[in-house]
Amino acid sequence: MAMEYMIDGTDKVLGRLASQAAKLLLKKDSVVVVNAGKVVITGHVQDLTAKYKQRIELKDKANPEHSPYWSRRPDMFVKRVVRGMLPYKKPSGKAAYKRLRVYDGFPEEAKKLKVFDVESKKPNQIFENTITVTQLMQKLGYKGR
After folding, report:
1. Bridge partner residues of 30 (DSSP)
2. Which domains does the chain have, with CATH numbers?
3. Residues linked to residue 131 through DSSP beta bridges, in sequence order
4. d(CA 68, CA 57)
5. Contacting residues for 23 by C-beta, under 8 A, at least 6 apart
6. pTM of the full predicted structure?
7. pLDDT by residue for the chain (145 residues), tens digit each?
8. What is the full DSSP assignment across 57-97?
9. What are phi and psi of 74, to 5 degrees?
């Protein structure tokens, strides 16, 4: 029987959160990620900014509409990272991706869901330099909130 889980992204490492969410999605469970803007990425801030700026600016010369799209909105960015951990081009991956919802805040509907805790070390124990997704997106030009 499929369950519906809520993952609170506050002070969770992005890659570990995304891999746990992808595992749940592939088990045919639904996942709601809340506080996506507070998810943490570990690494040197300048390196991360340069890496994601390069990804956002990728364009196909022949047909720019066929270029990969990376949103600057924190919730859509986290959703895209989770998509990268799913077999998205297969039917099972597309069905799993449709069961994923990501919010930047904490909506009322998420309060009644079963909480799934992503177990990992604190971000500062893994690496001393960290940045939240919202801070990274603001460095890349996000103007919201």
Report:
1. 4
2. 4-139 (3.90.1180.10)
3. 41
4. 9
5. none
6. 0.91
7. 789 999 999 999 999 999 999 999 999 999 999 999 999 999 999 999 999 999 999 999 999 899 989 999 999 999 999 999 999 999 999 999 999 999 999 998 888 888 888 887 778 778 889 999 999 999 999 998 6
8. T---SS-GGGS----SSHHHHHHHHHHHTS-TTSHHHHHHH
9. -55, -40
